[in-house]
């Protein structure tokens, strides 16, 4: 635009440039948030391999060395954090309510933050890729923050699992 351009066209041009910058910044923010989430949970779409008599899922560790994986509890999408030190599958109370899990008997849970109340529950199904577990013992833990489910030994003992080259292999025999 030059000095002979009418002021209304200059305003329109400036407005369009501002909108283009806003759109570009929004796209960049959207893209970077996806990158950050993939770094936090590199197993968003776990792939399954079929072996002779087994199904295997390979999990990649995140930058902190943790194994997070998207899965399903009773057909609802959840994020699972593999925790071999947890006795059972631990579900935060808020998420348990969203999933419609029933609170059973009360018990005390030893956590990293001390002793807390928990409630027994059972998961009709727990799925990671093509691995499907049924009638899994779990606990609802009110003091547990966040929305990640700890995938503890009540589920893991139904699988063979091992570390291989920095990955975690989960295998279910059929």
UniProtKB/TrEMBL annotation:
UniProt keyword list: Hydrolase, Membrane, Protease, Transmembrane, Transmembrane helix
A GO term for molecular function: aspartic-type endopeptidase activity
Cited InterPro entries: Aspartic_peptidase_AS, Clan_AA_Asp_peptidase_C, Peptidase_aspartic_dom_sf, Retropepsin-like_bacterial
Superkingdom of origin organism: Bacteria
Short name of any one Pfam family annotated for the protein: gag-asp_proteas
Gene Ontology BP, a term: proteolysis
Transmembrane parts of this sequence: 12-32
This protein's name: Aspartyl protease
Organism: Halopseudomonas pachastrellae
